[in-house]
Structures are given as C-alpha cells and as structure tokens.
Amino acid sequence: RVHGDRSFFFQFSPPAPAPTSMQSTVFIFLLAALLLAPLACGDSCPSALMSYSFWNSVSGFTFKGTSGGNTYEFNAYLCTKAASNLKCSTTNPVPASDVLLCQTWNSGKSSKNIGALPASIVATSAGLKFTSSDGEKCATSSSGDHNTAEVLIRCDSGLTSNTIQMDTTYTFSPSSCLWSFTGASKDVCGLLPAGGAKPKKSLSVGSILLIVALVSVVLYVALGMAFQYKYRQARGLDMIPNRGFWASLPGLVKDGCLFTWSKLRGKSYTALP
Fold first, then answer.
1. What are the residue ranges in the chain where pLDDT is below 70?
2. Other Cβ atoms within 10 Å of 64 Cβ, number
C-alpha cells in the first residue's frame, strides 16, 4: 500500500505448529460461547418456584379441571421434567420429560399431550404465564393444528408458601386448540410488576449504544466539516474530516478480513502495494 512516496508490503510466513495468537483467540471465543449457551437458552423458571418439593415428584404437579361438564386430571411439569421412563399420549406416546402438560382420564389409562416443552415463561401484570410448544395433533382442528397450553399463575398473598392453588375450571378452544388454565400462588407475587401495573418499557443497552453512536457520527461530521471550512479553507469533498483515512478504510478492512481468513486456514497472506 502506498502512503506518500513510500511503498511497503507485509509478508507473513506460514504458521508454526503451535497455535497462533489468532487461533487461540478464536478458540477462547468458541469456548466462551459454548459455556454461555446454556445460560442464554436454558430453563428460565424463577428460583422462587424451583424450591417447590412437588416439582420433582414422578407425576409432576397434579390437579383436576372441569370444562363443559367433563372433569380430567392433568400432570403439569412447569418447572421440572418428568422421569424419562414415563410416557404421555395414548395415540402418539412421547416421553413425559418432553411435555409441559399431560391430560389423563380413564383412571390414568388414557392420556394426551396437550402442551410440549420447551415453554416460555413471562411475568405479566396478570400473573406468571407459562406457554407451551406444540403438543400432539388436535382432533377438533380441520387444518391439522396441534394442541397448545397456557398456564397463568396469579399472585395471591393470602395463600401459604410452597403451594399453587389451581382453579377448578379451564377453557378449551376447539378452533385454536388452545387449553387455558389459571391458578394462584403466593410465591409469584415478587416476580410480577408492582401494583399489577404493566411493566415500564425502557431502552435496551443496544438501543442506547446505537443512539450514542448515531449522535457521535453526526457531531463528528458536522463539527469536522465546520473546522475544515473555517480554519483550513477547505471546500467540496475536502471538507470531509479525515478524508484520506476514510478513503483507505475499505482497503484496510479488506486486508484485515483476508489476513484473518488466511490465518484461520493456516496459510500465509501477503498484502501487495
């Protein structure tokens, strides 16, 4: 690359058998990503509920619900997974460890997977809401939809700790195949927005950084052009601050990318003038 009247080039020899600093950096980055992946994608069940003794029972959290005059029993695995040897669904058996809600009837001889894991857990103004993934196919759907389930746990400070009191009725929508359950617990009160109000929306860290970056760019260009115009008598494109640097930046980025790619492949790279 030429700067003024000087020309120079970079020559890199093939990497030695020992890991290079670039390879070490990449290895550390990948290792950190693997270690942090469970934190980003893992179970988000609040610790206030993880202490419940019945989460770890074989049958999960069992309750009864009535809808349309029919009463069924449900095994809910809201904050734990069922034993790997258990099955759910009479028509299409799946491991109960992959199920959020399993409906049972006929003294437990028949069952249906009405909501699968993973489930999303969101604290709303109404309560702590569990939403399942697709369960087995829904018999009432003409388009082949799957059963899904929602469980909303309200705050009730009058209940004793370490308990969930499920409502005796639930709703089922034949068209959407959505099962909706509600209950109450004292232990979710500290997890919900104060006073039942909707949570206040605030700017994320990424949004703040983006705003700061945009403002900085605008100030840099405006003040830089004013300085070039007044003190250096520049006109036209010469008013752009640090014009030479910005003009050479694409080539520098290209050289950096090619260098990184060649080092990752274990080859040498020469940046010609």
1. 1-60, 84, 193-203, 268-273
2. 11
Please, are residues 112 and 101 in contact by the beta-carbon 8 Å criterion? no
* C-alpha to C-alpha distance for 144 and 132, rounded to whole angstroms: 18
C-alpha distances out from residue 270 to 17, 82, 255, Å: 20, 58, 9
Single-letter residue type at 125: S
For residues 164 and 115, give the distance between their C-alpha atoms in angstroms, rounded to a whole number: 19
For the whole model, what pTM was predicted? 0.53
Crossing angle of helices 21-41 and 243-264, in 10° steps, is 90
Collapsing DSSP to helix, strand or coil, 58 comes out as coil
Q: Dihedral angle at the C-alpha atoms of 23, 25, 30, 36, nearest 10 degrees? A: 170
> What is d(CA 48, CA 164) in angstroms, rounded to the nearest whole number?
12
Q: How far is CA 158 from CA 49, 128, 155, in A?
A: 17, 17, 9
